Amino acid sequence: MNVYIVGLNQISDIDIDKVNKPYLPLASGEYTLKTGIAIVTAFAIASLAMGAYIGSQPLLWALLISFALGTAYSIKLPFLRWKRSAFAAATCILAVRAIIVQLCFYMHMQSFVFGRALIMTRPLIFATGFMCFFSVVIALFKDIPDLEGDRFFGIQSYTVRLGQERVFWVCIQLLLAAYGVATVVGASSGILWARCAMVLGHAVLASILWYHASQIDLKSKAAITAFYMFVWKLFYAEYFLIPFMR
Q: Could you list the residue ranges forming a coiled coil in this record (predicted)?
């Protein structure tokens, strides 16, 4: 499903990507448009077919909602292509990454796989809240390297409206706030080893984030793009800490 969503976005953004990301397979000409359409169609069908075959309602709902929002985000149809609106684009990313993934995957494992009653656990609430912060940051940050192309093609991202530097530091402040809250929540755990892992883990990640942020050259598109990929590494690193929430 992720291949479908990302691929559809590249199909819809070929002209923009020729400016912002000329190395991508469609923008560079490595893949033809016909090949791109075949890939995303095949992966969408395969994803939904797997979800239907497995028979888990939470998993299938996660796939269907992700499919719908991913399509609405990118496709050039009346009332769609929500990425043209900074708020709608951020809402799509937050809904999938922070809410649908956390809740539906948890429900799939808890009810379908293990056959247990659904309860709102502390780790689930923490993961959903924390990833809301992170998803907002990703939604904002993804447009920072794309200022030139977005401005030319009329994509009203927050970076186009507010400027690269301002959006960059808003993202850093949001992430530091999220790490601060996670540290406080972790410190409230009644289990010593869990408390130590949560506090030290988030303190280390926050320190690494601040170090890299203070070193970045915001005039370099390559540096900004590399930092964006670094933010994704922090995103997935959090999944190593979530199990320590007790």
A: none
Q: What is the pLDDT of residues 189-223, one digit of tens each?
A: 889 999 999 999 999 999 999 999 999 998 888 89
Where would I find the H helices in the chain? 2-12, 14-20, 25-28, 33-54, 57-74, 86-94, 101-107, 122-141, 147-152, 158-162, 164-187, 192-215, 221-241
Quick one: which of 140, 239, 122 has its CA closest to 191?
122
Nearest alpha carbon to residue 223 among 232, 213, 233: 213
The crossing angle, in degrees rounded to 10, of helices 221-241 and 122-141 is 180
Over the stretch 148-185, which tens digit does the pLDDT of each residue have? 777 777 777 878 888 888 999 999 999 999 999 999 99
- Residue of 210, 141, 202, 205 whose CA lies nearest to 171: 141
Alpha-carbon span 46 to 39, nearest angstrom: 11
Distance CA 120, CA 177 (A): 24
